[in-house]
Every structure is written in C-alpha cells, then in structure tokens.
Amino acid sequence: MLTTRFGYSQDIILKPDENITPFYTLEEWIYSNSNWGFDSYDFKNIQAFTPYFSSELEEAPALFINGERYLTSWLTNGTFNFPEISFSQIDSIIVKPYQKVTNGNYTPNGSIHIFLKDLKNGVLYDAIYVNQINDPGPNIATEYESNNVEVLSKKKYHVLSIKDFLNTTLLYNVEYYTRTNTLDYNRKFTPSLFGRTIIRLPSGGSVLQRNRELAFILKNTIENSNYKLNLTSSFTTKSQHYEWHPISGIEVPASHRTFQIASNFRTRKDSFYKSTQLNYSFSDSDSLEFADASKPKNYVIEQQLHHTSAFGFDYKSDQISIYINNILYSWEDEITENSNSLFNHSLTFNYLSEKLGSINLFVGNHTIGLDFKKPLSNNLNIDLSTFRSNLNSSGYNYTFWNEGIGFSNLDPSIHSVTNSSSFTNIYSTAKLSSSINKNNVKLTWNVYPVHYWNFVNTNINYELISGLQQLGSEITYTDEKNVGFIRYYSALSMSPIPKVNLRTTISGRFLSYGNNKYLENVEGINNLIFTQILSYKADRNLVYELLYKYISPRRIHEYESLEDISNFYISRVRPIKLLNASVKTWLIDRSLLVTLSLRNLLNSTESYNTNGQYYNMSIHFSAILHIGKK
Amino acid sequence: MVLLFLLFGKDANSQPFHYLDVGISRSSFNQLSDIYSNNWDLSSVNSIQFRTPFYIGTAGVGLDFFSYTNKSDNTFEISSLNASAFFGLDAIKTKNFIISTGVLIGVQRIEASAEFFGENPAETELYTALALEPQVKLGNFILFTEFQYRRIFNYYRQNLFTVGLGLKYRIGIGEKLRGFID
Q1: Residue of B31, B153, B160, B181 to mutate, interface with A, max A Cβ within 10 Å
Q2: Mean pLDDT of B119-147
Q3: Which chain B residue lies closest to A540 (C-alpha atoms)?
Q4: In which residue ranges of chain A is pLDDT below 70?
Q5: B72: nearest CA in chain A?
Q6: Distance from C-alpha of B62 to C-alpha of B80, rounded to nearest angstrom
C-alpha cells in the first residue's frame, strides 16, 4: 500500500492491551501516551496541547471511530463530547498529530483514530474503581479532622456484540466521576479566588459535585458484495457537568445531551465513486443552577451536519482521490435569543505517487492549503505544508463570546472582548522525521518547525471583582506577524533482556520566537515532557509495569494580575513528577483481566492548572470480564 | 516492584495455581500513631486469606475485620473491613519450614453510626503493608505466624504493627480446574 509508506511511519500507535499504567479518562490516556501536555482542572475537561500550537487550539484533534468521524465539539470546546469508551473496548488507537487533511476534513490539530475490538458474539463487562488517599478516616469528628476526599472515579462499561444480526455492537457505559472540590490550590491558599460552583437546591441544601455521564453507542454494518454500509448511533447524557468558562470567569454547572448518527456508505465496485459519509449531531445544554428557578441561566441547542463524498481512480501506478466536504453548523441560545449558522464547503485533491510522494490540495471557503510529503531516503521523510485558514467561518470562540452564546451571566461592565484581528491564520510547517527499526530497537524522531506569517493571538486578563463569585475578564484578539517555534519528538523502544521492555519518550520545544504577546501564550504550554516506561512480562498472563513521567512547569499569564491577591504563584503550574506501578493478570483462559495500580507513588502534587484540583496517590482497580468467542 | 521480581526471577513458577491455601488467623495490633491510639483501642483482627502459587512467587487475596473502640464519648465506635491483594516470595524454603515475605495493597472501609458520618456512613482508604510469615507445614495443614507493618493513608497516616497466629489448609487444584483458572 502506498499509504503505508507515506502515512504511518510517524503515527503513534497505542495498544491498550500493552499499556497498563492507570489513567482517569480515555482522553488523558491518549494525550499522555502521545507525550502531549494538556490543561485540565478535573481530568474531565481536558484541553490537549497538540504539536501544532495555534489559536485553533480549541478545535482539538478530529476523532474517528472505526474509520468514521465522531463529532466531539460543543460550542467553544473541541473535545467536550469525547466518547466515554473504556480501554478494554479498544483494540488500538492511531494518533496522527501532524496530518492537516484527513479523509477530506481540514484537521489542523491532527486526528485520533480509535479501532474498537472485534468481539465476535459476546459480552464484555468492565468495572473501574479509583480511590485517592488523604481521607480523614476515623478522625472525622476529632480535633484532627481534615477535608473529606471522595472516591475519585467509578465506571462501568458494557459491550454486547451480535455478529449474526446486522453485525451489531452495543456499548453502554456509565461514569460516576467525583470532583474533590476541597482539593484545589484555590481553597488551600485563597478561598475566594476562583468561583467553584456549588449547586444550591431551593430547599437550601447543596448537591455534591460529581460529573455523571451515561453513554450508548450502537454500531451496525450492512454489507453485500456490492457495498458496505456502517451505521453508528450514539446518545450521551451528562446529567451533571462542570465546565470553566474562560469569558465569564466562573465554572458553570449544566446538564447536557447529545444525539449523534453517522452513516458511511462504501462501494465495493471498482468505480470512480468510492464512498459517502454523513454525520448529524444534536446537542443541548441546560443550566443546573437553582438559585433563581424562575429564570434559567442558559439553554442552548447546537446542530451539526457533515457530509463527505470520496471519488478516486488509478493513473498508471499512482492514486488520485477527490473529496467533497460540506458542513452545516447552527446554534440557538434561548436566553440571549441569539442564533446563527455557518455553511462551509471544501474540495480536497489527493495525489499519491511512488516517485513524487503525496500531495494534498485543500480548497474551501474557510481554508486553503497544500500539504506535500516525500521520503528523502529509506529512513528520512519530509512533510511540508502551507495553509491559510479563516477561523470565524468555522465556529471560533470569538463568534460565541462576541454574541454571548451560552453565557447569560455576562456583564458588559466586567467582561469585554476587543478585536483588531483579521481572524486569519497563515502558516507553514516543515517536518523532518525518521524511523529506524533494528534488532528490537526502534527509534523514532522528528523536528517540526511551525512559522506563522499571521497568527490570531488571544490574550485573556482576569481580575478579581469584590463581592462577586465570578472574575472579570478582558479578552483581546490581535494579529501577530512572523511568529513561530520548533518542536521535537523522540521515542526509543528496546528490549535489553528478554521479557523486559524499555520505552523512553521525550518531546518539547527548541525555540520560539515572536513578540511578547505571542510568547506569553507559548509559555502556557509545557516545554518538556519526558516519559520512561519499564515493563516486565513475567508470563503471557502477567505483566508488571513502572512508569515515570516528568512534565515541566508552565505559566498561565491570564492569572498574572491575580498574583497580588493570591498567596502563591497562581500563574505558575508546578512541574509534575509521576511514578506509577501496576500489575495485571489474565485468569480463566484470558476471560478475566484484573489490574491493580498505584498512581503517583511519590505522592508529589499532581495538578494541571492552578485553577483546579490537585491529586495525591491513588489506588486503581479494574476487572474486565469477557464472555464469548475469542 | 518490577526490579524486586527481576531479582527474584528464580522464583518463577512453572505451575501457577497448582494448589490453593485457605487460611484463617487472629492477630493483635500495636498502634504506632498517637493521633489514633489516644482516641481508640483496636480489637484483635480476624482474617481470612487465600494464597496460590503465581507465575512468580505467591499471590492472593485477603479480608480482615476489626473494630475501633472509642476511649471517650467524644468519638464513636467504628467497624472496619479490609480487602487486600498479596504478592509474595519465599525467602527461606525447606521441606517443612518456609519464611515468606510480601506486600499487601488494599482498601480499608470504615463504617460508623449514620448520624456520625452524615449521608456517607462509609469511608474507604488505601493501605499498604509489608508482611513476614514464618510457616510450618504439617501435611496439608500449615501453621503460620504473621507479622505485618501496615500503613493506612489517611490524611494523618495511621501506622500499625500486627502479630498473629493462623492455620492454613492446602487444597490441591486438579489439572482441569487449573486449566480453567489459568
């Protein structure tokens, strides 16, 4: 396959079965294993720092499940609807951090491809339990009383697979995720700084802060010798969800529902027409604040319709593909009575040749660009791209913030958005990469310079407003010319003695340049991430693993003016030093998999945002039962 | 832990799960943390344990029960249920005498009267323990003493030392059942 040569050499392939160190969520697992940093204050709302750092950051990587697009965004949050799937349900994940165009979609932050396990006819049950230390224990009513620490996470995952009936796979997943609202920097140092929302009931009582989620995903396949039709329907409810809203300077509790349906039709005939994919998603969100029951805080509806059709033919030994892509995106805020819609369309022309390499030409009303990949030698590849992208036409945060969509508590006297930007990113990237695999030693590295001819820069400045729970915010959009950085990534995997595997991954930045406004934002991203994994496979059915991870500190300039009020360096997120030990064993002819792990054995403070929780040592236990044919 | 097992790699077992030891024991606590010993006396511990040869050394699970008796009216009586996993190696092994060492990783669940804990009458907390078990084998019975240094990871760490005595019975696991478990 031509694609193997050009596409996969630099992709990160993750196998849940080979990796046992504990993670709180699937997103965290993917980002950590890709050696990306991220911003999060509760592990449930995660913003990844993908290798391509830009103001398109919040668009997040595009997600595909079994080759079909899965829509994850909700207003300004690119990964809000990341599916609640267990590691046990996944065969493998391929992360393509640098791929700007994926199956006819513009994907500036790359893409993530999840491949579910093929369970044949069977049932899979997976239960996960996480408990964190530092409970008061018996001392709850003595002079040594301390804050209560709730069980961190309880999850239950189910899969029912019936191959004989429409090739059906049903995933039914429940997450019961606690936020230990007592364990944030905020409470430890300055109780009044960030508004953590406690939902007050009309009776005066309060509701425990817990993120709750219930998800169904149903997959069917209908096929014959002429065609194959994949159908995916999913329904997710977050009955309680807490999200920090940058513009309103407060965390807002809300309930949220999403229904999504995707169909992918592929012809098996050797024709010019290849496939059509359709995605429709309906989401709505309602406030959970009961303070003033007569006046709801927000109710927003969002709808998305995506269409992609692919065409292609062979020209001598080369392949030519053409994709047509259309996106209809609309939203409606019942409180502010603002509604809007966007319509985008694009054409992708892909040329794959043994001699010339791979060329992608992307032409759309919002984005235009060119991507070119070529092997320079057996082990060395070069990937050049240049894109011009209009952010506003694809639903950028400015669009929502300017209209006040979903933020009915915005007060113009304390929240402002000023703009002198064209909202157009123009950038060029040049990736040099290499992959060497010899005698059980695999070395992969790349160097990735990104230069912005024009960069849409967002600066946020928060200030404390006395007497108010929410912070005042001042958001400025500017255009910055000729800014950029060079990123590097290197992964080494080897087996020095039988049964023992060592994996070392290091990534970071060499150099960043530009004016202060831009560099302040770059400092918000961890400069260095180092991961070392040592695993020992004592038997086919028993694996021990140690993981050490170092994440360098980062600086959140948005909080700088709060520093005088807080009693600590609130703009500095401290470095993270994580040591995890895990053991897993299969029992009953590999039908039962039991995993026991201790996370953060050094018990050093683990926190990804000073406006958030910090985590101490925790115990993770999971049991996966699989009944059926293997 | 990985390094430990690498060092003791010789303990690799070619026949995992070929027997199951079921044991009961009773131990008494020595409290090493004043914060807790000032307020509570601990009852003796009743334990049940299951151990089996693993791919390396021995593995098992255990449950134990004890209660916190309040010394004054300022605190309450609390019951405690502890569930743990055990990973061990035989340090000394002769025909009838074995000294095994190991680590326990578990969770303590404590429960008091409802009004004391409000809506959440139960609390769970991680604990780890180092164990030393001299054992004498008498046919299918094994008489053992148990020394444990246990740390419960409450906000104020609770350190305990236990000494106990117990009896195990060895049940052979047939080829067929072993094939099922493995």
Answers
A1: B153
A2: 90
A3: B55
A4: 1-10, 55-59, 150, 179-202, 204-207, 290-297, 408-409, 630
A5: A142
A6: 14
Could you tell me which residues are beta bridge partners of residue B148?
B131, B162
Contact of A618 with chain B, judged by CB distance below 8 Å, is answered with: yes
Distance from CA of B105 to the nearest CA of A (A): 9
Specify burial of residue B112 (Cβ count, 10 A radius: 0-12, 13-18, 19+).
Answer: buried
CA torsion, ordered A623, A260, A47, A171, to nearest 10 deg: 0
Cβ atoms of A596 and A565 within 8 Å: the answer is no
Chain A residues in contact with B54 (beta carbon < 8 A): 542, 585
Return the DSSP state at A615.
B
Query: Do residue A538 and residue B56 have CB atoms under 8 angstroms apart?
Result: yes
Chain A residue nearest residue B9, CA to CA: A538
- Which site among A21, A142, A497 would you substitute to test the B interface, given the most B Cβ atoms closer than 10 Å to its Cβ? A142
User: How far apart are the C-alpha atoms of A590 and A584, rounded to whole Å?
Assistant: 11
Residue B140: DSSP 8-state: T
Report the C-alpha gap between B178 and B182 in whole angstroms: 6
ipTM given for this complex: 0.87
Q: What angle do CA B90, B92, B96 make, to 5 degrees?
A: 95
A22-31, A255-264, B53-62, B117-126: the lowest-pLDDT one: B117-126
Amino acid A20: pLDDT: 78
Chain A / chain B CB contacts < 8 angstroms: 111
Domain residue limits at A216? 2-628
Other C-beta atoms lying within 10 Å of the C-beta of residue A302:
22
Q: How far is CA A346 from the centre of its chain?
A: 25
Query: Which tokens belong to B90?
Result: 């035989």
Q: How far apart are the first and last CA of chain A?
A: 29
Count of the separate structural domains present in chain A: 1
Q: Which positions ≥6 away from A380 have C-beta within 8 Å?
A: A432, A433, A434
Domain B19-86+94-181: give its CATH code.
2.40.160.20
**Total-model pTM:** 0.91
Closest CA to B105 of A598, A622, A129: A598
Q: List CB contacts of A536: < 8 A, sequence separation 6 or more.
A: A499, A500, A501, A543, A544, A545, B2, B5, B6
Query: Which of B2, B40, B120 lies nearest to residue A138, judging by beta carbons?
Result: B40
For chain B, the domains span 19-86+94-181
Query: Which residues make beta-bridge pairs with A65?
Result: A68, A114
Bridge partners of residue A381, in order along the sequence = A375, A433
Q: What six digits make up the tokens of B93?
A: 């092994």
Copy the structure tokens of residue B163.
Answer: 């000494």
Q: For residue A231, what are the contacts with CB-CB under 8 A and spacing of at least 6?
A: A218, A219, A220, A221, A222, A261, A262, A263, A264
Chain A, nearest residue to B59 by Cα: A585
pLDDT tens, residue by residue, A421-473: 999 999 999 999 999 988 889 999 999 999 999 999 999 999 888 877 788 99
User: A583 vs B1: CB contact, 8 Å cut-off?
Assistant: yes
**Using a CB-CB distance cutoff of 8 angstroms, which residues of chain A are in contact with residue B105?**
596, 598, 619
* Mean pLDDT for all residues in chain A: 87
Q: Can you tell me the distance from the alpha carbon of B84 to that of A532, in angstroms, rounded to the nearest whole number?
A: 28
Shortest distance, CA A620 to any CA of chain B (angstroms):
10
Task: Please indicate whether residue B121 or residue A232 has the higher confidence score (pLDDT).
Answer: A232
B105/A587 touch (CB, cutoff 8 Å), yes or no:
no
CA angle A135, A140, A141 (to 5 degrees): 170
